[in-house]
Amino acid sequence: MSASAPANGDKPQSPVDLSTIPISPEGGNNPDQNKQPSVAGSDEQITVFHDKDNFNVKHPLMHKWTLWFTKPPSGKGDNWNDLLKEVITFNSVEEFWGVYNNIAPTGELALKSDYHLFKEGVRPEWEDIQNKHGGKWSYQFREKKNVPIDELWLHIMLAAIGETLEDETDGEVMGVVVNVRKGFYRIGVWTRTIGKSIPNGGDGDVAGGKGRTQEKGKEVLMNIGKKFKEVLKLPPSETVEFSGHTDSAHSGSTRAKAKFTI
């Protein structure tokens, strides 16, 4: 099944391949969308594909997701928690497109801004209890003028909420991030582990690679990295890197050494 972004100003229009949802309220091409709404008793079930303004049935996502925004620092020693703002939590296809159509495109954000899209209950911070044993896949786009960053960020968000970055039982993907900097754009996918099983499954959480061998853990992460690279449409000559959050924290202003590359 494919989904395309809504026709809205300069929003990206190219199709996004997904094995499940989401589907754009204004761009789906599934022939079933044209069927008449079903009627259960006297209650007419109207989806967004029958009436995009007056629907009463939503298409749920597997998880709830929260959008966060980091505003640029003022240069006065701002606290990170003061810069990080929780925007909204949603759990349906329709709500996602409603949010997307009403926020500033990534390409229009000020320098040192970030968008973070994370599973509900997970803060986009290394210190979060569900992130502290994890890491991230990332890639920097340095030719900013030639980068379709709005389209790429949309595709990564769709892959995350459509659960196509990992297999159903992996439980690794925590969220996705885009950073706007002077010399580059950077997109990342945060994972729960660094390929090793977390003690006690991750502070009581059932996920976290519990019971996985280190070999299997690495295989899961490498598969996420491959899918990440595919979504970004990077050529084989380009490399995406995986680094642990702990290593990143210790490296300070320098880049952490990559644990894995693809």
Explain how this protein is built.
By secondary structure, this protein is α+β, with helices and mostly antiparallel strands. It has one domain: RNA Cap, Translation Initiation Factor Eif4e (2-Layer Sandwich), CATH 3.30.760.10. Helices cover 21% and strands 25% of the residues. The chain is built from six helices and twelve strands. It has helices at 80-83, 93-100, 149-161, 200-203, 214-231, 245-251, and strands at residues 2-4, 15-17, 39-40, 43-44, 60-70, 84-92, 113-119, 135-141, 173-180, 185-191, 241-244, 260-261. The strands form three sheets. It has an eight-stranded antiparallel β-sheet. A two-stranded antiparallel ribbon has the order 1-2. A hairpin with a 4-residue loop joins strand 9 and strand 10. The model is unreliable at 1-42 and 202-206 (pLDDT under 50).
